Amino acid sequence: MSELPTGPVAAEISRRLTAALAPTRLAVIDDSESHRGHAGHDGSGESHFTVEIESPAFAGQNRVARQRAVNAALGDLLRERVHALAIRARAPGE
b vs e for 40-52, b when ≥16 Cβ sit within 10 Å of the residue's Cβ? Predict the structure, then answer.
């Protein structure tokens, strides 16, 4: 179902999305290293992520609704620990 996250923030992203959206596929990719020296990268890592998620919960939803569902599941984590998040969300069979 998922690729194993490598750090504590990635693991928390994975845990929250699994609990909220019961994905059939989930990949949490830490893109932080490619943003070294950019705004929001403080050198500690785990600041920039890509989430690839497939979930039946997204059936019939548009892209904005899917992104809002992911953002809602992550809540305070986005405000406090994550500087940037790219979301690729789809329903099974898409």
Answer: ebeeeebbbbebb
Residue 3 has pLDDT above 90, yes or no: no
Cα–Cα distance between 28 and 36 in angstroms, integer?
19
pTM of the model: 0.85
List of residues 6+ apart from 84 with CB closer than 8 A: 31, 35, 40, 47, 48, 49
Instruction: Please report how the helices 8-21 and 63-74 are oriented relative to each other, as an axis angle in degrees rounded to 10.
Output: 120
DSSP state, residue 94: -
Residues in the chain: 94
Residue-wise pLDDT for 34-71, tens only, equals: 656 555 555 666 888 999 999 999 999 999 999 999 99
Q: How far apart are CA 14 and CA 34, in angstroms?
A: 21
